[in-house]
Amino acid sequence: MQAADPFCTNIQCLFNRGVTLGCTANQYCPAQFVRRDQMAAFLNRLADNLFPLTCAPGQVMTLARRIALAELIAAKVLAIER
């Protein structure tokens, strides 16, 4: 990925947060297809960035709950402070 690519900053941000890992240790390979299992892992890492696995002592937030919360935030029904 070249720095001049219009999506380079977005991809670098996702890489820095561990959401996207690339196809090798030093390549992103944006033209390659993504399998369903890879997309599931990608979405799970994204959810982990938005909502930690534990939301209160002893309470675990499921992936389905994290996705539902992410949908509410995307629809601007909920807001989170960073």
Q: Give the number of DSSP strands.
A: 2
Overall pLDDT, averaged?
77
Largest sheet: 2 strands, antiparallel
Q: Which structural class do the helices and strands define?
A: mainly alpha
Instruction: Give Rg in angstroms.
Output: 15 Å
Estimated share of beta-strand residues: 5-15%
> Which regions are unreliable across 5 or more consecutive residues at pLDDT < 50?
none
Count of alpha/pi helices: 3
Q: Give the total of domains.
A: 2
Tell the overall outline.
elongated
- The percent range for helix content is 40-55%
H and E string: HHEEH
Distance between the termini: 28 Å
Strand order of the largest sheet: 1-2
Describe this structure in words.
The protein has helices at residues 8-16, 36-50, 63-74; strands at 54-56, 59-60. By secondary structure, it is mainly alpha-helical. The chain folds into 2 domains: 1-32, no CATH class; 33-82, no CATH class. The chain has a two-stranded antiparallel sheet with strand order 1-2. Helix 2 crosses helix 3. It is elongated. The mean pLDDT is 77.
Keywords:
single chain; 82 residues; mainly alpha; 2 domains; 3 helices; elongated
Task: Briefly characterize the structure.
This protein has 82 residues and is mainly alpha-helical.
